[in-house]
Structure formats: C-alpha cells, structure tokens
Amino acid sequence: MRALDAAAGLVVVAALLTGCSSGSGDSGGAERVKSSGSSESKGGGGDSAASDGKRSVEFKVASDQPVDLALGGVTENSGESVDIKNVKAPWSKTYQVDPDRYPSIAAAPVDAGKKGKISCEMLVDGKSVDTDSGQGTGSSLAVSCSGST
Fold first, then answer.
1. Biased composition, Polar residues: where in the chain (predicted)?
2. Domain boundaries, the chain
C-alpha cells in the first residue's frame, strides 16, 4: 500500500510539472524529455548568470538512495518536462532561465518501499528560494522545490 501511495504522489507531482517547461541535466541516469508542444528547444546549462538577462537557477538533490527527477520551467518551450531516472545523489544542475518563469523540480525514490531520506533545494542567482525534505517510506519521500525567477 505504501508503494502505491508513493507512486500516486509522484504521479501528482509529475502532473503538476507537465504544464511547465523543462531542461536537461547531467544525471548519471536515463533521461527522457516529454513534450506536449510542437516546437523544440535546447536546455540551458552553465554555472553563472548570463549577460542576456537570464537568471541562474540551480537545483540540488540529496538522498541516501537513487531517485527519479522531474524538472520543469527551465527551457523556452513550455509544455516540455524532463524525467531523469535512477539518479545517484547528491545531484545538482544549474540552468539559465528567462525572468518571470517558475522553474521546479520533483524528486522521489526509485524504490518507494525502501526507508530513506531525501531533500531538494532551489537557488536563484545563488540565493536559496525553496527547500523540501522527507524521510520514511512511500509518499513521505516525494519532495518538490519551486520558485519564481
């Protein structure tokens, strides 16, 4: 039942992120881009603020077990989401994002039945704007971080 709760929690988080746009990250895991739009765009990436007015958005995830990630709001094409599977933590990635966007990340354990700890943090231009953490099993381990650029 706990695994079902965790799966349901991840589905809800993924559904919330589907309406956002996304980018790609270096995960060490398998990455899949889902797009509901017809245009293509390339994900941002880099470690410093861009001179073209974009904001530096860094996501950090810590966990004592592998996690699945869903990213949104980090590319120009809204409607894209990026799923990164079986990521070894700690994990971090920095994106260059247009102002007035709402980037987000959701993280959940690969094995929802395994007891563990997980946390995420989102930084905009080096300042922490959101954190979340959970411990235990099942849906208590699904976390998400988001904020405005």
1. 131-149
2. 2-36+43-146
Is residue 128 within 8 Å of 119, Cβ to Cβ? no
Secondary structure letter of residue 126 according to DSSP = T
Low-confidence ranges of the chain (pLDDT < 70): 1-51, 78-79
User: Per residue in 95-110, pLDDT tens?
Assistant: 998 888 899 999 999 9
- CA–CA separation, 95 vs 15, rounded Å? 22
Contacts of 54 (CB under 8 A, 6+ apart): 44, 96, 97, 98, 99
Instruction: Answer whether the bond into residue 103 is a cis peptide, omega within 30°.
Output: no
CA distance 75 to 22: 5
Instruction: Measure the CA–CA gap between 140 and 107, rounded to whole angstroms.
Output: 11
The pair of structure tokens assigned to 51 is 């001179």
How far apart (Å, rounded) are the C-alpha atoms in residues 63 and 132? 12
